[in-house]
Structure formats: C-alpha cells, structure tokens
Amino acid sequence: xxxxxxxxxxxxxxxxxxxxxxxxxxxxxxxxxxxxxxxxxxxxxxxxxxxxxxxxxxxxxxxxxxxxxxxxxxxxxxxxxxxxxxxxxxxxxxxxxxxxxxxxxxxxxxxxxxxxxxxxxxxxxxxxxxxxxxxxxxxxxxxxxxx
Length: 147
Prior knowledge:
- By secondary structure, the protein is of the alpha+beta class.
- Helix content is 34%, strand content 23%.
- The protein has two domains: 14-59; 69-146, Alpha-Beta Plaits, CATH 3.30.70.
- The radius of gyration is 19 Å and the shape is elongated.
C-alpha cells in the first residue's frame, strides 16, 4: 500500500539539531559558499550519513511555495537613476523583472508596479522587500499579488 506523504510546518527552534544542520548545509551548497558536501557538513558539524539521510526530505518553508511570480508596488522619488538602482537590486538578488509599469510622476513621485520572477531569489521574500525599501528614493513597497 502506497502511503500518502504528509507534511508538517514546524518552527525552526523545535527541529532536532541534525535536521537544522542539514538545512544549513544545503544552504551553504546552494549559495556557493562551499563546493562539496564534505565541506558543508564539516562546516556545520554534521556527519555525511545524516546529511544524506535528511537532505531530500527537509526544505525551508519559502522554497516549498509554488508561487514564483510576485507583483510589488511602490512609490519612487522622481530622480534620475533611482529606477535603475531598483532594477539592479532585483537582478543582484536573483530576481528577474517580467513586467514594469510606471505612472507619470506627480508632485515628484511615480508609482511603480513590478512583476518579478522570484524562482532564483538568493534571499527570502521578506529580506528582498526590506532591502528594496532601503534603496534611495523608494517609498513603502508592498506585495500586491503572487501567481
């Protein structure tokens, strides 16, 4: 009898140490901070056998989300180069701009809507949004849709 897979959402501080270390080792490999499984497990203090036991069964929650396209709106001060910095930031974080819509600036502020493929994002969605809001000229950015 083929048993249906079950999934659970568990707070990270409740995970056994070996599972948490497996997640960190996978992150090191995916980010390119280390080149081999041996380097990753050595850095986090985990046996290779434990890594191989858990690696295909544990994933960070945000990597399990099926929505890879996000629409973000924000207001941007109308100054030369600000939009270019936003687009460079998106690219630097692994995002790919699919669509961009900008209103005609009124009183020095333009409203921007970006649809971004987040499939290869190097950071979490929260970190991405926080980083975007810290760019010069960017007013409060919000996620308006996922698809």
